[in-house]
Amino acid sequence: MSARKEIKTTQAVLNQFHPLVAEWFLVHIGSPTDLQEKAWPKIAAGEHVLISAPTGSGKTLAAFLWAINQLIVGKWPLGRTGVLYVSPLKALNNDVRRNLLRPLAELRKVFDGAGELFPAIAVATRSGDTPQSERRRMQHHPPEILITTPESLNLLLSSKGGRSILTSLTTVILDEIHAVVDGKRGAHLMTAVDRLVPLSGEFQRIALSATVRPLQTVAEFVGGYVMAGNPHNPRYSVRHVQVVKSFQKKNYCLRVGFPQGAIDWDDRADFWQPFVAELKSIVLKNRSTLIFANSRRFCEKFTHLLNQDEPAPIAYAHHGSLAPEKRPE
Fold first, then answer.
1. Cα separation of the two ends of the chain
2. 201: region left, alpha or beta (phi > 0 left; psi from -120 to 50 alpha)
């Protein structure tokens, strides 16, 4: 694609948004990815969509930005939950909330600078770690965007107070759909999504996946069926879901390393010192580093050894046995 044609395509895609939202995107994010250019026209048209693209292709922003735009311009009502995001990974939910609050704060500055009103858009998470006080607050003051898990969604649907939050949905975003599509959690999730329809009426379904096959089968799984006619004599038709796939290539840089220095494999104590020293050198060179361990015991051991002799902790352990208040930290 020529540079001139690429600019025209970018302008055409961003023209769907409020001019200040488009300005924010170009300044803070840059040009839309191949995936975003394909997805936004379909999302803006209200179509149900399954988005499949590699990690880092902008899937989450592709799903959320149109919803944020509609809330900003007043097309969707405030003061009620209109956007529901469901992820099977509870640890991901706090990251998603944080990654939404940052652009909302940046957008507020852009609108304030232009002398235009920017509405209060609340983003909240609901999981097993959410305190009771926060759960009660949600019922009285529902957030415009609610982030939760399949299990917590089913718990919300099982209570009168929880259902009261879910009566005005316009969009439901199902992230990491590949992680649940072939198991009981997937069935649990989609039955919950279908139970939302009698509460909210029809809403847009946006499913996100890094890699999933076959795409059409997963699209049918996400869409389900629409009931028409008398409930005592129902007729069902397939809810059509558009598949959006990115063909943009992603380059990976992989390096296999080994601790420097001699290691006596028969002496366990001799192994840990050069191994942890190598890990620490990597951690100190980078802004953020993820170290995966194959057990909770090793996770805690790595954390202890990395923090040893450091004036302040440079590593934190994360696993399912942590206290709820420690996990977000």
1. 45
2. left
Give dist(CA 206, CA 185) in Å, integer.
18
Is residue 105 classed exposed, middle or buried when 0-12, 13-18 and 19+ CB atoms within 10 A define those classes?
A: exposed
Provide Rg for the chain, Cα atoms: 23
Give strand ranges (E) for 239-329. 241-245
Instruction: Return d(Cα 142, Cα 192) in angstroms, integer.
Output: 19
Cα separation, 7 vs 203, in Å, equals: 33
User: Cα–Cα distances in Å, from 125 out to 102, 104, 144, 258, 285?
Assistant: 15, 16, 11, 40, 33
pLDDT at position 102, please? Answer: 94
pLDDT tens figures, 231-267: 888 899 999 999 999 877 778 888 888 776 656 656 6
Q: How far apart are CA 47 and CA 27, in angstroms?
A: 28
Mean pLDDT, residues 99-108: 95
- Torsion sign, CA atoms 72, 76, 78, 80: negative
The string of DSSP codes covering 184-212 is: HHHHHHHHHHHHHHHHH-S-EEEEEESS-
Nearest of 122, 196, 127 to residue 164 by alpha carbon: 196
pLDDT tens-digit map of 116-173: 999 999 999 998 888 888 889 999 999 999 999 999 999 999 999 999 999 999 999 9
* Residue 125 in tokens: 């998470």
Say yes or no to pLDDT of 298 above 60. yes
How many whole angstroms separate alpha carbon 85 and alpha carbon 104? 16
* Strand 83-86 versus strand 123-126 pairing type: unpaired
pLDDT confidence of residue 8? 56
Tokens 């989450």 -> residue? 60
Averaged over 226-232, what is the pLDDT?
Answer: 84
Given a cut of 60, whether residue 48 has pLDDT beyond it is yes
Tokens of 206: 């946006």
